[in-house]
């Protein structure tokens, strides 16, 4: 990679792979969650993630990026941890609390990735792309806050 543009392309490919993997993992999280609000939050985020993936595809088309087989190793690891928790023998409320912890790790990772990409896009003068990425960043932040509220104002206490 010789410049910020190439690093930006690398970031976009990474996010593309991350969202793609998450689309496959979220249904298991929806299924495992016991708390109805948590189930709903995960299933809403699955819909959102599908839209985000479509937006990334759009960005790739606009910028002539071929996402190819680039794999986001970090997302693979985060999902593996989540699957580990899902297979644990744990009380429902405890599993819910653990699922939130896994999901928030994922959101924090995505917030970091989109935050960086928005700034690269701005620096490189890709204004329209920056706006598209910033919208996803907002969704990830909102999702993280929603999960945080569910944990702090209910699920963690249920798990005590
Ligand atoms: Fe996402």
Automatic annotation (TrEMBL):
Pfam families listed in its UniProt record: DUF892
Classification via InterPro entries: DUF892_YciF-like, Ferritin-like, Ferritin-like_SF, YciF
Protein name per its UniProtKB record: Uncharacterized protein
Top-level taxon of the source organism: Bacteria
Signal sequence, renumbered to the chain: none
Organism listed in the record: Flavilitoribacter nigricans (strain ATCC 23147 / DSM 23189 / NBRC 102662 / NCIMB 1420 / SS-2)
Lineage: Bacteria, Pseudomonadati, Bacteroidota, Saprospiria, Saprospirales
